Amino acid sequence: MIRRRAYLWRTAIVLVAMIASARTSQAQTRGYVAGDLFGEIIQLSKTTVTPALQDSTVDALSPPDGATFGGGARIGAFFAPQWSLELGVDIGREISEERTLSIRSPISVLAPVASLQYRSRTSQRYLATSVLAGYHAVVRGRIQPGFRGGISFVRSERHFTVANASISTTPLLPGGGILIPTVVLVTNDYTTVSYGLTATVAAEVAIDLAEHFAIVPEMRALAGGLGGIVMRPGVAARWRW
Fold first, then answer.
1. How many structural domains compose the chain?
2. Which residue of 18, 115, 151, 234 has the smallest Cβ count within 10 Å?
3. pTM over 0.70
4. d(CA 91, CA 69)
5. What is the pLDDT of residues 111-161, one digit of tens each?
């Protein structure tokens, strides 16, 4: 009987400890929402041909590098002072480039016509949906540095213009006989949409301005699966509860 009572007491103590631990863990879990603005620096892989080709179709297919800006929204939770998990959606503004390109004339072997020229516009835009785990150093005061890493599901949308030339003939006289070749230049606008997974890493510094509100300067980098690197320096406004 005494052993049975001791066993019951031990069981009760373990149950109380488990309940207290669950409540403590629940109390430590803090959710947050955030909105962010960022600059976007794009550096993509390219193909170069030496010497340069007269037909510049390869140049029309090359995506542009450059810098733009964008914004997004995030939701996440701190499961402990050091660890967090975040889901975010960020979209960059379209970056575009216009160039005058040339294409070889199909009658250049018959007449001294070097090439034909046309205006080409190439543009690129990225939308990234990211799942990132974060580690945040425990420090005193209002400043807390942190690091994040995870994967992003990236939607890439590209627009580009490609031209091609063909020959049509018209008779010199109504009765026929002598035909005059005429070069017809046709341009086509293409849109390609692709999806892929890429690795994402980030560094941030949270600055608490109030009990539930912080400003978070950050730097994010996306690489792998894009054919290049996308850097996104920015700042987020975070509200925790």
1. 1
2. 18
3. yes
4. 9
5. 555 567 777 788 889 999 999 999 999 887 899 999 999 999 999 998 888
